Amino acid sequence: MFVRGRVEDVRPAPGRMRWIRVGGVPGLDWTPGQQVRVHVADITAARTWVSGAFMNALRTYSVWDYDASSGVMELCVMDHEGDGPGARWARTVRPGEGVVFGKPEGPFALRPAAYHLFAGEETAAVPFGAMLRAAGEDEAVHGVIETARPEDRLPLPRAGELTWCHRGDAPAASSAVLVDAMRGLDLPDEPGVAYVAGEARTVQAVRAHLMRERGWPRKSVLVKPFWTPGKRGME
Question: What pLDDT is stored for residue 85 in this prediction?
Answer without folding.
Answer: 82
